Amino acid sequence: MTIENASPICITRYDARNLRKLIDERYSYIEQINENESNPLIIALDNATIVASNNISRNVVTMNSRIAIINQYTSERQTFTLVFPKDTNLKLNKFSVLDPIGSDLLGRRVGDEFEIESPIGKQTYIIAKIIQQPEAQLRATNRLTMRR
Predict the structure, then answer these.
(1) Averaged confidence pLDDT in the chain
(2) Is the dihedral of CA 119, 123, 126, 129 positive or negative?
(3) CB-CB contact of 41 with 97 (8 Å)
(4) CA-CA distances (angstroms) from residue 5 to 30, 34, 37, 109?
(5) Domain residue spans in the chain?
(6) Residue 6 has pLDDT above 70, yes or no
(7) Which CATH entry fits the domain spanning 2-143: 3.10.50.30, 3.30.450.40, 3.40.309.10, 3.40.50.150?
(8) Alpha helices for the chain (secondary structure H)
(9) Residues 6+ positions from 1 with CB-CB distance below 8 Å
């Protein structure tokens, strides 16, 4: 998958720490060195801007975000949640960050376009909306609590 016209990616400190731990658990040190140049998740983490959870934009795909994407050719809209591998559930449209779509979309923004290779050829999609982002929900909850 390739991302077109993508802004630099931004990942929360919390997600970065948990993703590094996941990589350490999944790959030996030698495998990480070998994977470093080809694994999209490792590349994303190495090049990401890391920010505090309360500073991440609500338009950025973070872990456990529910997002809507639109096929640019068919206008078909799909929604899914980006999760850690242990929470993957295809019936509930929960895709792992280790899947190619997951690792490439982590840290991307609403409006970014990307291509997926499918049996009928390349399909171009756009990130249409962040339906739910844990960090944005937490900020909203904190604001409500502070008002009381």
Answers:
(1) 84
(2) negative
(3) yes
(4) 33, 28, 21, 11
(5) 2-143
(6) no
(7) 3.10.50.30
(8) 13-26, 29-35, 40-47, 100-105, 134-147
(9) 40, 100, 101, 104, 114, 115, 116, 117
Q: Of all helices (H) and strands (E), which one includes residue 82?
A: strand 77-83
Structure tokens that stand for 63 in this block: 């872990």
For the stretch 71-94, what's the b/e string if a residue is b when 16 or more beta carbons lie within 10 angstroms of its beta carbon? eeeeeeeeebbbbbeeebeeeeeb
The model's pLDDT over 42-62, given as tens digits with 9 standing for 90+, comes to 778 888 999 999 999 999 999
With beta carbons less than 8 A apart as the criterion, state whether 78 and 68 touch.
yes
- Rounded to an integer, the average pLDDT of 21-44 is 70
CB 127 within 8 A of CB 69: yes
Measured distance CA(39)–CA(70) in Å, rounded: 25
**Confidence at 5, pLDDT banded by 50, 70, 90:** very low
pTM for this predicted structure: 0.81
Instruction: With beta carbons less than 8 A apart as the criterion, state whether 127 and 108 touch.
Output: yes
